[in-house]
Every structure is written in C-alpha cells, then in structure tokens.
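Lecture 7, part B: from sequences to assemblies.

Below are the input chains for today's worked example.
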Amino acid sequence: MAEIPIIDIKGVSKVFKLQDQTIQALSDASITIRKGEFICLIGASGCGKSTLLRIMAGFERPSSGEALMWGKPIEEPEPSRGMVFQDYALFPWLSVRDNIGFGPVARGLPTAEVKAIVDKFIELVGLQKFATAYPHQLSGGMKQRVAIARVLANDAELVLMDEPFGALDAMTRERLQDELLEIWQRTGLTVVFVTHSVEEAIFLAGRVVVMTPGPGRIESDNALDLPRPRDVSSPEFNDIRRVLGAKLHSHHGKKAA
Amino acid sequence: MPLLLLAFWQVATTQQWTRLIPTPAQVGETMVDFAWGGIYDDAYSATLVTHLLASMSRVYGGFALAALFALPIGLLIGRIPAARMLLDPFLQLMRPIPVTAWLPLSMILFGLGARSAFALVCLGAFYPILLNTVFGVRAVDPKLFEAAAMLGCKGNAQFFKVVLPAAVPSIFTGLRLGLGLAWFVIVVGEMTGVPEGLGAVIMDGRTLSRTELVICGMIVIGVAGYLSDRVVVAVGNRLLRWSPANHG
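Predicted structure of the full complex, as structure tokens:
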C-alpha cells in the first residue's frame, strides 16, 4: 500500500447559496498532495481555486466528497495547516513579535518557549529591526513576511497561500518568491500556493494544477521537472508557459464551440 | 479666530449695539470674582470650585454609570444574535427621543435635584457608547477570526484575543462622544432645580439677568469639557498606538 498523502481531496464539490441563487464554486475536484510538495493552483477568477484552498484550511466544508489530511477528515482550522492571506490579516493591535507569537501563546506554551520561537522566526524572515513595529508601519512585503513567520511559528506542516504576493510590486514579489523557495527547501514544508500568474506558478511549483471556471473544476495537473533555480527567460520556461497558458484558456474555446 | 471674536465682542458691546450683553472686561471681572471672590462678594463669589466640582461629579458619575451599562450591553448585542434581536429594537426605538424630552419624566421619577441631573447625564452618554461598541464589535474583519482560528484560538477565546482589542478604537470613540455629551447634557440636567452646579449657575444668571455670570458659566463648561476631552484623547493615543486612524 502506498504512503498516506498529507492532503487527499476526493471528488469534492462546493455549492454556495446566496439568497435564492445557488452557485457551484467547485465541481468534483480531486487532488493528492504528498508531503514536501510545492503545488500551485492556477486559474482565472471564479475557477474555485480559493474555495479549494479554503476547504483544505478547514474554513469551508465540502458540499460533497471528502477532504482528508493524513487520512482524517478536515473539519476545522488547525495550527498544522496555516493560511497566508492576500491581505495579510495580521492583528493590527499586536507588534510584529506578538503577531508571530500569537499561535504559540494561544496554544499555551510557556513564555520562554514562545520567546525562543518568535526570535527564531523573526530572524528567518529578517525582521529583527521591526520586532516592535505595528503592522500599519510595515510595507506590504514586510507584512507578508510576518504572516509567513506567524504560520511557521505555529508548527504548520502545510502552508496554504492565497495569492499572497498579488498585492506587492514586482521587485518585492520576486524577492519574496526567492525567500519562500529557500524556506521551503530548507524546512521540507508542504506548500499549496494559489496564484493567477502563470509565470509565478512555473517559477515556484513542482506541480501546477490548472483550474477553469464555470463551474470551478480541475482542468489538468502538470508536474514540472525544470531544475532550480529556474530561469524565467529560458526557452524551456517559455515552452511550459505556452502550454499552461493554452490550458488555462481552454474553457473559452469550449464555450465558443 | 478667538481673538477676532473677542475683538468683535468688545466693539459690539462698547458701541452699545446691544445693552443686554456685558463687555469682555465685565465678564472677566465677574470670572475673577466667581473664582476667588473679593470684588462683589455676593452669593456667587468664590463659588466656582464648588459648582465645578458638583457638575464634574455628575458628569463623571453619570458617564461612568452609562459606560457600566452600555459597554456590556453593546458587547452582547454586537456578538450574540439573540441579544441583538431581543434588545436592539427596543433601544433603537428609545434612541430618537432627545435627552431634553426626558427632563419632565426624570423629575417625576428621580425628583427635583441632583439625582435627576445624574440620570439625564447617564442617559445622554449611554447611546454613543452603546452604538459605537456595537459597531466596533460587528465591524471586526472576518479574516481575523479565520486567522485566529488557524493559529489555534477558537470559540470563546476569540472574544478576548480578537473581538475586544479590535473593537477598542470604536469603543474609545464612543466613550469620547459620550463624555462630550455628558458635558452637554449637564446644563439641562442642572435645570431641574439643583442648588449647585454650572448649569444651575447659568439658569440662575438668566433668572437674575446677570448675563456676565451666564457667560462665565459657559466659559467654565467649555474649558472643563475641552480639558476632559484632551485627557481622553491622550489616554486613547497611548492605548491605540497601533492604530493609524487614531491620532486625534
């Protein structure tokens, strides 16, 4: 028998009811994620990629099908699955230190241990100088570093990222992509990363899952074996970009036909 | 701007445009007498501190009582749908009634005197505190609840770790408005026949046609209200250093 995957999504559908309307956000999605993988979910808006991520986090329950972590149903949010939101969702009344320490404190760890954990992760994301700053005093890139550190400080095995770099400028985005890859390679985390940028997906992921809207479903699951660090201007990179771009837009063709 | 106003006042009164309003110098003189005595030596000489303390005790007492009720009720209404359904319609119905309209009823219920003033101040400060607390609790970004839940802080623990801190700026705005209104209402409250208090001084001044005393009362209330607001703002800025919107 094969090893148990960290995440196993089996035929999951999600229907939202808005007043009288029902919206099928996700239709019969299946995906298996092994420990240590870096997966990108990519697709146009309305393709259900964020819904799928939120189901993995435990923020939403599937309408039908099964969402499992280590073979057990995902029922509610847990520290083992950390989410990094696009708009950071830091606690504005807490300093950088206290934001990172929020999880360890909530779990009731002793003060000394919390301090050690916070020190470690503040250093990991290079924010020692801003330890006592409040979120509103930080740039977008720094806020997202705090959000990442906050999740890692809480012993997350699986990091779920919902377009985390979407609101950042290009330079900051590239730096954070590099830093994220470095952290991932160093720690052996499992990362599920939602984006709408094909380039970002190819740069980061070991597997790119292409999703299409109306109703949201998984179009294809593409393993990438480009060597790292990846060169965004190489011909191989461009070939993949072309193929994935075509898949991403495949539903347009179907609708027209 | 205040200097311009003062100049206009000086000109208007010395040119005898109206005889009913005293000159700034007269008011100044009365103020000195009101505060320290030694000029007119009448019933109001050197009584400023007495009146001010009487008013302050009602303002802060009524305000504190209002906060004592409004904060927990506001938190309940904001957080628990059942409490909202139960309490909100009633409170919303009572809200448009101006505090001044309560005056006769308050005199019947609490009698003529200090208790009535106290009750009106309390009522006046209640709604701003309540409404801002409800708003603060309800306006918490839902993402913060999700963030707290995934970090292992769930259910009731979120109340102290998320709801309360997130609502503090709004609660503070409510307290500030409430205290401002308490100073506002005190004059009305002290019209109910209390012997001491700045509102009583103003009413007596009117009855006795001592306009300069009325103006003195107004100035003292203005300054006292302003200073107490500054204190609240200073405390707020210290407590809310994290909030970019809160630097008044």
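Note for the exam: Strands of chain A lie at 7-18, 21-33, 38-42, 64-69, 72-73, 81-84, 158-162, 190-195, 207-212, 217-223. Keep this in mind when comparing with the next example.
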